[in-house]
Amino acid sequence: MEEKPTKASPPELYSIFFFLFACNLLIYPTVAAAAASIGVNYGTVADNLPPTSQVATFLKTQTTIDRVKIFDANPDILRAFANTGIAVTVTVGNGDVPALAKLPGAQSWVANNILPFQPRTVINRIAVGNEIVATSDKSLIAHLLPAMKSLHLALKLANVTDIQVSTPHSLGILAPNSEPPSAARFRRGYDKVIFAPMLEYHRQTKSPFMINPYPFFGFSSKTLNYALFKPNGGVFDNVTRLNYTNMFDAQMDAVFSAMKKVGYDDVDIVVAETGWPSAGDPNQPDVNIENALSYNGNLVKHVNSGKGTPLMPNRTFETYIFSLFNENLKPSTSERNYGLFKPDLTPVYDVGVLRNDQALGPMAGTAQAPSSSWGDAGGRKWCVPRSDASDAALQANLDYVCSIGVDCNPINAGGACFEPNTVRSHASYAMNAYYQTFGPQDYNCDFNHTGFVTSNDPSTFQFLLPT
C-alpha cells in the first residue's frame, strides 16, 4: 500500500538531500551484484515432474543455475544433461556403499554409471551415500571411507581425473553444545577415528568436505530473523570476539571449528544442501513463501557476495539449494514444498536465478513479481529511512547490509560519505546501496517497514518523507 507523504522539516530535508545527492554518485556506478555459481538439488520423489530433457533445457536456457546434484545416478537424467555444460553431482545409494568398499565393486559401478556418460555430460562429483555418519549404522560408517577411496582409485584407473569423490554430512556430526561456533567439535569418538582419516583423504585428493546446514531445523521464535538473514542483534562469540548476524554463517563456522580441532581447516567445504520450505502444516506458522524467499534469496546474495563467514572471510562456497521442484510424494507438507519451481516450471518464488530477472527482496511481506526500477517518467528511485524509524532499527539495517557484501567503505571513517557521522545518515546510504544493488524493487526497500521508496529527486529540494 502506498503511503501518503508529508513534507519534511527544512533541516531534515537539507541533511538528507546533501547526503543522498553526494553519495548516490558513488552508489550508482558500482551497484553490480557479485556473480557466483549456485546449484540445486534435483529430487524426483514425485509423479508429476516434467521430462528430464525439458528440465535440462529449462535450466540451461532460462536460469543461471550451472550445477545440479541428484540423489542417484539416474541414466535418463545424465543423458538429458549431455552437452548442456551443467555440472552434475551423482549419488551412490546408502545401501550400495558396502559393495563399493572393494576395488572390483567400485570399478563396476564407475563402468556402469560414469563412463557411458562422460565427457558429454559433465559429472563433477560422486557423493557416496547421504548423511551416513548421522545414521549411526556401524556397518555403513565402517565402509564409507573405504568406498570413497575405492571409487577414487577406480576413476583414476579409468583415466578419469576430473571427478571428485566425497560424502554429504548433516550437522548431526557435531557434538552437543557446539555453540558458539568456536566451541564446536565433532562427536566424541568420531573425531579422530572417523573424521581425521576422512579429512586426510580430502586433503590428499583435493576433494571437499560436504555438509548440509539447515537453519530451518535450528531456529526458534526468538531466532527467526537470525535464521532468515534479516536484521537482528546477532550472536556474539566470546572466544573469537566475532559477532554472527545469521545462523548459516554460525553453522558453517561450527563445522570449520570442528575441522580445525582435528587439524584440517585447509580442506574446502561444499554446501550440499540447504533450504527452507514454502508451505507447512498449521502448527508451522513460520513455514511460508515469505520466509522461504527470505532465506533462499538472502542465501544466494550472501554466498555470491564472496564475503565468506567470520572465521572464513572472503571465501565463496559452492552451494546447492534444496530443492529444484516441489515433490508431491514426500511424506509431510513441508517436505513436499522445498522447491524453487512448480512441476510446470513456473517459480514458486524467484531468488534471482531466472535469466533477465532480479531476485526478490528479503523484507517483503509477500512474494511479488519483479517490477521496473524506473519511475513512470523514466527517473531513478531512491530508498530512504522512514522518519519514524528508530536509530536501533536503522543500526540493524546498517549492520545487515554491510554484512552481506554491499560496499560500505564510503561510510567508514575517512570515507567520502562518513560525514555526517550519524546512524540515520549511514543507514540512508546503506539502505539505498542495498536497494540499488539487489533491485531496485520496492520490496528491497522495506527493511521491516523502516524504509520507503521515493521517485522525487533529492536535488530538487522537494524530497518528502512519510510519517
Describe this structure as you would to a colleague.
Pfam families: Glyco_hydro_17 (PF00332), X8 (PF07983). It is found in: Cell membrane. It is an enzyme of class 3 (hydrolase). GO terms for molecular function: glucan endo-1,3-beta-D-glucosidase activity. It catalyses: Hydrolysis of (1->3)-beta-D-glucosidic linkages in (1->3)-beta-D-glucans. With 467 residues, this protein is of the alpha/beta class. The protein is 31% helix and 13% strand. It has eleven helices and 15 strands. The protein has helices at residues 10-27, 52-62, 75-80, 103-113, 138-157, 191-205, 224-227, 247-261, 289-305, 391-403, 423-438; strands spanning 5-7, 38-42, 67-70, 87-92, 123-128, 164-166, 168-170, 209-212, 235-237, 242-244, 269-274, 319-321, 382-385, 451-454, 464-466. The strands form four sheets. The protein has a nine-stranded parallel sheet. The chain has a two-stranded antiparallel ribbon with strand order 1-15. Strands 9-10 form a two-stranded antiparallel ribbon. Strand 5, helix 5 and strand 6 form a beta-alpha-beta unit. The model is unreliable at 1-19, 28-35, 357-378 and 457-467 (pLDDT under 50).
List the helices and strands and how they pair.
Layout: E1 5-7, H1 10-27, E2 38-42, H2 52-62, E3 67-70, H3 75-80, E4 87-92, H4 103-113, E5 123-128, H5 138-157, E6 164-166, E7 168-170, H6 191-205, E8 209-212, H7 224-227, E9 235-237, E10 242-244, H8 247-261, E11 269-274, H9 289-305, E12 319-321, E13 382-385, H10 391-403, H11 423-438, E14 451-454, E15 464-466
Parallel strand pairs: 2-3, 2-12, 3-4, 4-5, 5-6, 7-8, 8-11, 11-12
Antiparallel strand pairs: 1-15, 9-10, 13-14
Helix pairs in contact: 1-11, 4-5, 5-6, 10-11
